């Protein structure tokens, strides 16, 4: 298995809803990332997990809550989002050995907040 | 502030031509460089990475790195309409977690 999967592909939610995004990889990668990407902009780093521990939080609002239950799975819990949070949410993973710096992206979840 | 600069384009080339995409970076200590291709509405796909000065070839793609000039480029030979996409240059930062700084991307249009 050489890919990162993300579910759902699309999500529409209201500002009072709670939802979760899921990311999974079975490549033995031990670093996993959440990015947010708005139209015509590059991906913007949100969180980094290294060996299932949160390593970087790029000052993301608390309405986004990441979770890494095991080495293959990464979740992003959403609650009380704002319309400006509508974006493509990307998960990426990396082998996490010093010589291997390549990050591989999943297909993304297109989120619309009404 | 560490920056990665790309011309936003669009860069228009005819089918069969060589497309040349350029990227400059500000952090002289950067060691790893990546090119991602992103089709509209899709996620970035890693197409090339380069860690050493010089050229690295993979099929129709060649990445070129010049650390002295802080410059990395991507050449696409025999460009096809299917190569039309946005190409993101990314540079690894020094942190132990391999965070990437992305350029804003160059849109490439290959006309039949």
Detail the topology: elements first, then pairings:
The complex is a heterodimer of chains A (114) and B (112).
Chain A: E1 4-7, E2 10-13, E3 18-25, E4 31-37, E5 44-50, E6 53-57, E7 64-70, E8 73-79, E9 87-94, E10 104-105, E11 109-113
Parallel strand pairs in A: 2-11
Antiparallel strand pairs in A: 1-3, 3-8, 4-5, 4-9, 5-6, 7-8, 9-10, 9-11
Chain B: E1 4-6, E2 11-14, E3 19-25, E4 33-38, E5 45-50, E6 54-58, E7 61-66, E8 71-76, E9 85-92, E10 100-102, E11 106-111
Parallel strand pairs in B: 2-11
Antiparallel strand pairs in B: 1-3, 3-8, 4-5, 4-9, 6-7, 7-8, 9-10, 9-11
What labels would you give this structure?
heterodimer, A: 114 residues, mainly beta, 7-stranded mixed beta sheet, 4-stranded antiparallel beta sheet, 0% helix, 56% strand, globular, B: 112 residues, 6-stranded mixed beta sheet, 5-stranded antiparallel beta sheet
Structure description:
The complex is a heterodimer of chains A (114) and B (112). The model of chain A has no long low-confidence stretch (mean pLDDT 94). In chain A, a hairpin with a 6-residue loop joins β4 (31-37) and β5. The relative contact order of chain A is 0.34. In chain A, the strands form 2 sheets. In chain A, strands 2, 4, 5, 6, 9, 10 and 11 form a 7-stranded mixed β-sheet that branches. In chain A, strands 1-3-8-7 form a 4-stranded antiparallel β-sheet, with no helix packed on it. Helix content of chain A is 0%, strand content 56%. Chain A contains no helices and 11 strands. Chain A has strands at residues 4-7, 10-13, 18-25, 31-37, 44-50, 53-57, 64-70, 73-79, 87-94, 104-105, 109-113. Chain B has 112 residues and is mainly beta. In chain B, strands 2, 4, 5, 9, 10 and 11 form a 6-stranded mixed β-sheet that branches. A 5-stranded antiparallel β-sheet of chain B has the order 1-3-8-7-6, with no helix packed on it. The radius of gyration of chain B is 13 Å and the shape is globular. The mean pLDDT of chain B is 94. Chains A and B meet through β5, β9 and β10 of A and β5 of B.
């Amino acid at each position: 298995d050489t890919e990162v999967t993300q579910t759902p592909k699309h999500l529409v939610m209201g500002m009072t809803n709670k939802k979760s995004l899921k990311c999974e990889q079975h490549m033995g990668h031990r670093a996993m990332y959440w990015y947010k990407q708005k139209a015509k902009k590059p991906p913007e780093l949100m969180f980094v997990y290294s060996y299932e521990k949160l390593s970087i939080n790029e000052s993301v609002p608390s309405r986004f809550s990441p979770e890494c239950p095991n080495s293959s799975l990464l979740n992003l819990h959403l609650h009380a989002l704002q319309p400006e949070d509508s974006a493509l949410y990307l998960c990426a993973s990396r082998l996490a050995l010093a010589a291997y710096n390549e990050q591989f992206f999943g297909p993304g979840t297109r989120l619309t907040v009404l | 502030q560490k920056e990665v600069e790309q011309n936003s384009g669009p860069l228009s080339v005819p089918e069969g031509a060589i497309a040349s995409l350029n990227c400059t970076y500000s952090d002289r200590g950067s060691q790893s460089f990546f090119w991602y291709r992103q089709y509209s509405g899709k996620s970035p796909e890693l197409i090339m990475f380069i860690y050493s000065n010089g050229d690295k070839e993979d099929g129709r793609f060649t990445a070129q790195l010049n650390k002295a000039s802080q410059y990395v480029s991507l050449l696409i030979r025999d460009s096809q309409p299917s190569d039309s996409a946005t190409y993101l240059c990314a540079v690894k930062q020094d942190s132990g977690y391999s965070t990437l700084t992305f350029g804003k991307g160059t849109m490439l249009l290959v006309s039949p």
